[in-house]
Amino acid sequence: MPIATTNPATGQVLKTYDPMSDEQIDAAIERADLAFRQLRDTTVAQRAEWLTAAADLLDAERDSTARLMTTEMGKTLAAAKAEVTKCATACRFYARNAPEMLADEPADAASVKAIRAYVRYQPIGPVLAVMPWNFPLWQVMRFAAPALMAGNTGLLKHASNVPQTALYLEDVFRRAGFPEGAFTTLLVGSDAVDRILRDPRVRAATLTGSEPAGRSIAQIAGRELKKTVLELGGSDPFVVMPSADLDKAAEVATTARCQNNGQSCIAAKRFIVHTDVFDAFAEKFTARMAALRVGDPMDDDTDVGPLASERGRDEVHAQVTDAVDRGATVLCGGEKPSGDGWYYPPTVVTDLRPEMRMWAEEVFGPVAGLYRVGSYDEAVEVANGTSFGLGSNAWTSDPAEQERFATDLDAGNVFVNGMTTSYPELPFGGVKNSGYGRELSALGMREFCNTKTVWVGEGEAGAGAGAHAE
Ligand code: NAP
Fold first, then answer.
1. What distance lies between CA 375 and its chain's CA centroid?
2. Phi, psi (5° rounding) for residue 96?
3. What pLDDT, in 10s, does the model give residues 287-328?
4. Domains parsed from the chain with CATH numbers
5. Residue 463: pLDDT above 70?
6. Which of 109, 113, 166, 430 might form a disulfide with 158, Cβ 3.0–4.6 angstroms?
7. Are 337 and 343 in contact (CB under 8 A)?
């Protein structure tokens, strides 16, 4: 894929970049390694000061940064502004909470026959971050803020269609005061990832993206025995039960499916509705989907902008066409518009069956699949019946049913009577083919720390000797 800014609203190529040479990549890794030695010796307070400065820059430059993101990948300007603000909030969250998250954790010294024993969290070195274009600032920040706070350095291989946002991120951290090399954007294609990850100076990798990309990184990292965190695709269920507030559910369902022009990993994608309320929900939901305004993402009145690439739009339309050809019913949308820009209308498809692509695949656009089920058990069976397990939603006002869904939905999160989203305070990640590891919260920070056990005794030959099993 060429490294270029192409405006999805017009299809116009605005700026192209040559990929970095092997020599330039090696030099960047060397700088990241040197910066790591510097950064790990700084205090948490110093790093918190730099991260707060980064938050201040993001806030001050919100509008221009948002315009850049909208130009590169087509999200609405309002959504882009909210994304910048969310990144600044996450930086402040980690600046404020990292001292506690990274503090030594005392253990019960007496029970391990020590004078003192504790767990210490230490950074591990340069971490490669392979990131997607759909939240071009937020996806990177939720890795970068905790990683830099912990004292690691970051090497960003961003998606090839958001190079200017990628360069902006490097610039923000530099201007915030982080040492040269602490956070570097590598303008490279995905073919360079193998070489970078095999470099012994690169200690770990995180990838947010598709399942095939995740498998590829995991394979390389497995060979090299390097830690990975993978945040992959999802086809989140949104279950509506008879006791749900249907108006609220239909309103949130529309936002949950179409936010970010339908290109969110944690978008609700499969709407699984109890037969008692199916017709009422379908009517309300379809009316709301059909009423969304599709158009120029820079325009304040636009709800849904273009998809990020022509290839992405073709793929979404192929999935819808496949379902229709095999007998599915389109309740609204479903037609690929002609004209400039990679727009696709909000679409609702029902009468889906397992042999259709939409049943098992992730649909990365504003297209909802609507499923009728006859019971709680059937709802859970359909909800869990894909290879994904990222987010999930359940709508019910019955407290017992809420608790059952919390246990039974096989996903990295369950949001009851609300839309799945991410908060710096809460862990984020998936199960099954949606990946492994967690981002955000203290868990996200510790993914790239050495969780070191420290045991201090009195010099005897291991008070626990003989009790060893290893
Ligand atoms: P993608 O094609 O997998 O690209 C993501 C990143 O991986 C890009 O930087 C891409 O580089 C790189 N890449 C692609 N193939 C690779 C390979 N074989 N080896 C190494 N790197 C590779 O995904 P996308 O289309 O940009 O993003 C959409 C996908 O991401 C969806 O499946 C979505 O659900 C998922 N996603 C998941 C989360 C989450 O948190 N779980 C969040 C957002 C998105 P190039 O751009 O140069 O190809």
1. 32
2. -80, -40
3. 999 999 999 999 999 999 999 999 999 999 999 999 999 999
4. 3-231+440-454 (3.40.605.10), 236-416 (3.40.309.10)
5. no
6. 166
7. yes
CA–centroid distance, 216 to ligand 1, in Å, is: 11
Q: Which of 160, 146, 147, 155 is nearest to 209 (CA)?
A: 160
Residue whose CA lies nearest to ligand 1 atom number 35? 209
**Is pLDDT at 466 greater than 90 in this prediction?**
no
The reply to whether 23 belongs to the active site is: no
> Which listed residue (258, 265, 332, 449) is catalytic?
265
* CA within 13 Å, CB half, 326: 17
Residue 178 CA to residue 454 CA, distance in Å, equals: 29
